[in-house]
Specification:
Blueprint lengths: L2 E5 L6 H14 L4 E5 L5 H11 L8 H26 L2 E5 L2 H10 L7 H12 L6 E6 L2 H8 L12 H17 L3 E5 L4 H16 L1
Parallel strand pairs: 1-3, 1-4, 2-3, 4-5
Helix pairs in contact: 1-8, 2-3, 3-4, 3-5, 4-5, 4-7
The structure holds adenosine-5'-triphosphate and magnesium ion (MG).
The site of adenosine-5'-triphosphate has 12 residues, from helix 1 and helix 8.
Length: about 200
């Protein structure tokens, strides 16, 4: 398994766990490519700015799904597929499961999951994640972890929204065979140890 995703609500710990996991894998002698969605390509970072800026205002779920998927298509083709081809491990923050949650399960009037999966198949081709670790925290804990910084366009949507995002990720874990739910309310070190233990078997 070489394409590993960390998923979950804003503030659950994706970025910090990804940095630690990537460093540990490098210590094991593996080549590691750490990417974030949307982003990690020039067009992806430009779309990230657009998608997260509060000045962008509200967008339709279909518009958001297509823009996130456009960033994803560039990332998969230009960065992830070549890395996997070289034998590197890819550690990615977020993947299409975020699109399933944020543009379908967590929004009234969102897209059908099947519509999102159709676009996802087009964006990924054959290069799908091997495993998606969903860092599950309740909205209260996530809010506490986000406290030190100002909210982006999506984070600013309020408490009820964050509860629906958390429930959406729990539902997504049931729908998606690649997803593994991780209890991320535990200490940082406990969560990291769990991730390493699960990854260790495949990357040796
Ligand atoms: N298990 C943990 N226990 C306590 N604090 C944590 C834990 N995991 C991460 N944190 C802290 O919570 C904050 C948010 O973590 P981080 O930025 O990694 O989350 P994120 O999922 O990447 O958020 P975003 O979706 O907004 O990018 C950071 O200050 C981080 O150090
Ligand atoms: Mg982050």
């Amino acid at each position: 398994m070489t394409y590993v995703v960390l998923e979950g609500p804003d503030g659950c710990g994706k970025s910090s766990q990804a940095v630690a996991l990537a460093a540990w894998l490098r210590d094991q002698g593996r080549g590691v490519v750490h990417v974030r969605e949307p982003g990690s390509t020039p067009v992806g970072e430009a779309l990230r700015q657009l998608l997260l800026a509060t000045s962008t205002g509200e967008l339709r779920p279909i518009t958001e799904a297509l823009l996130f998927s456009a960033a994803r298509a560039e990332l998969v083709a230009n960065v992830i597929a070549p890395a996997v081809q070289r034998g590197d491990v890819v550690v990615a923050e977020r993947c299409y499961l975020s699109t399933v949650v944020y543009q379908s399960l967590a929004v009234a009037g969102g897209l059908d999951v099947e519509q999102i999966l159709d676009v996802t198949r087009a964006a990924h081709g054959a290069h799908l994640p091997d495993v998606i670790f969903v860092l599950d925290v309740d909205a209260e804990v996530a809010r506490g972890r986000r406290r030190t910084r100002s909210a982006d366009r999506i984070e600013a949507r309020g408490d009820g929204y964050h509860d629906r995002v958390r429930a959406g990720f729990v539902r997504a874990c049931e729908l998606e065979v690649r997803a593994r739910r991780i209890d991320a309310t535990r200490s940082f070190d406990d969560v990291q140890a769990d991730l390493r233990a699960q990854v260790a078997g495949w990357t040796a």
